Structures are given as C-alpha cells and as structure tokens.
Amino acid sequence: MSHNKYFQFKQFRIDQHHAAMKVNTDGVLLGAWTDVEGVNTVLDIGTGTGLIALMLAQRCNATITGIEIEPKAAGEALQNVQQSKWSDRISILPVSFQQFVATTELRFDLIVSNPPFFSNSEKNRNPDLSVARHNDLLPFADIITGACKLLTNQGCLSLILPSSEASGFIAMAQKQGLFLTRITGVKPFPDKKQNRGLMEFGHQELPVIENEISVYDHFRKEYSAEFKTLARDFYLKL
Length: 238
What we know:
This protein is of the alpha/beta class. The protein is globular. It has one domain (about 5-230): 3-Layer(aba) Sandwich (Rossmann fold), CATH 3.40.50.150. The protein contains eight helices and ten strands. Strand 4, helix 3 and strand 5 form a beta-alpha-beta unit.
C-alpha cells in the first residue's frame, strides 16, 4: 500500500503526512472485520491516523474514543476526525493507554487495536516509527489487563497480530479471563502461509469461530473476492 501524504476512502480522507504509521492493510482489515453489532461505545488503542476509528464510525452509530501516545499522530488523527462527517461521535486523546486506564471511569462495548508488536527486533532510526511498531510502551500484558478493566460484561476486544504472536497472546488473555471467540487467519496469497490473525476476545468461553482469507488472488495482481467483500465500502476502486 502506498505511503502518499493522504489516502482517500469512499466516505473520508486520511491525511498522513506527519504520522509515522501510515494507512496499511492490517488497519483496513481490522476496521472492516471487527463486529460492531449492538456496539454503543468504542475505544481505539493507538489510533494512529484515526483510520480504524473512522472506519468503525462509518459502520455503526457508536461513540468512539481514540487514544494515541505519539503527539504528531494524535494531532493528525484529530484533524482527520474533524474533517469527517462523524466528528461529533469521535474524540481523540493524546495519552498512553496505561494513563487512560488509570484515570477513566468509562467502560466500552468494544476495544479495538492494531498494536505495535515487535519485541526484540532492531528498532527503526525514526523514534516515532519505533513507538508505532515496537511494544515497549504498550506490552501485550498491558493491553489485556486494561481491556479486562474497561470492557463491559458483554464487551469484546478485537485486534490484529502477526501469526507468530497470536498463540502467546491468546494464552496470556485466557489466564486473565479473556477468551478467544473468533479468529480469521490472513494470507497474503492463497498459496502462502497465514501471516496475520484477526482475533476477537470476550469474557465468556464460547466455541471459537475460525476461518481464513487471502488479501490477493492467485494471480497476485487483484484483491481476492473475500477481501473485496470486506473492503468494498471503503476503497474507491472496489
């Protein structure tokens, strides 16, 4: 996906000149895949440009709070929200998740995150990009602990992670009473291994719904039919 200064969707525009983490397929997948049925309150952890918050605002009537620790990204997310048709339902707060958890009295029907996931790899020279990609400031354990506190009784945590990180996160969440309820494995192409997992967690232990999708088709030039179905309300060319 290109790193242009802006990305135009069907119903909103993402300016991304300053944000370290640009619009990417992971974010689009999560924003389109997440279940929003019956959701009234949403928290987007690490909102970045505000992409997922805006996608969810397009899909439901919930009140949405996006939090972002990196000041440039938070400012850009606020700008993107303000120029959208849903500015009255989305707020952007320039705080860390840990600070938010410690101070808020709010509870959420849905918590969503495309979190930083690199743990031990070499950091990018751009410090803002390191914050966006490495989980030093937002460990998985903090996401799980915070979600347990902030979710309503019937609330869900929805996120996307590399397949290599998924099993560890699932086990860690289960120990704290958050159970995997739905998982979609994501392949770049039909003949490749899964490299991402879209995952949904809830307080109740239920049978897990499992499936998989490919982003591109066998010819490696067109989006797959299942990806087009997910993204058709957002991408201009679908």
